[in-house]
């Protein structure tokens, strides 16, 4: 999905005039564009709150298992760049032993949780707090931002996503520069319909048998 870099105007990160002309798709008016962004935020709140409510027994069970499995905090909080360039703590279930330093020791429970991407479910809290969106570019650290070059301001004009193009395009299999290109492509093509398509692909992947299989050494 990395395709061509359509080029984003940093002052108007949600619009891709050149790409729209090339693909002969109508340009959104400023009013309709603003409405779409408001709807995106409302959907984030409604869906994230619904998932947290429905999954609360499961999330509590995972939290208890993690706490009983090894000493340490239930969540890890990693510093990431968010909306308007503000840093926030991106939440994840802890999947390693708390005393792991240079040699990371993934717990048995952590391996299952990580392979199924369930370790990222606490980020629904970040979505509710307005720090993330359900769909968006990857959540990156302050040190990674310069890699986005002229598109850095466009990145900071949106909320990073719990999922996005970067996940449906191959996730960790992508080289770093291709990951940046995928984020830029998402920013240039963004529509609510695209968000729904990405969410559908993500749910399909999470529910697949492969995602729930235990790790196997090759």
Task: Provide the descriptors you would attach to this structure in a database record.
single chain, 218 residues, mainly alpha, two-stranded antiparallel sheet, 46% helix, globular
Q: State the helicity in percent bands.
A: 40-55%
Strand ordering within the main sheet: 1-2
Gross morphology is globular
CA-CA gap between termini? 27 Å
H and E order: HHEEHHEHEHHH
Would you count the extended β strands for me? 4
Computed CA radius of gyration, to the nearest angstrom = 18 Å
Mean pLDDT: 77
Query: Which residue ranges are poorly predicted, with pLDDT under 50 across at least 5 consecutive positions?
Result: 1-28
What proportion strand? 5-15%
* Alpha-beta classification: mainly alpha
Tell me what the structure shows:
This protein is mainly alpha-helical. Helices cover 46% and strands 9% of the residues. The chain is built from 8 helices and 4 strands, in the order H-H-E-E-H-H-E-H-E-H-H-H. It has helices at 17-23, 30-69, 108-115, 123-128, 152-156, 165-168, 176-189, 192-207; strands at 75-81, 87-93, 133-135, 161-163. The chain has a two-stranded antiparallel sheet. Strands 3-4 form a two-stranded parallel sheet. Strand 1 and strand 2 (87-93) form a beta hairpin. The protein is globular. The two termini are 27 Å apart. The model is unreliable at 1-28 (pLDDT under 50).
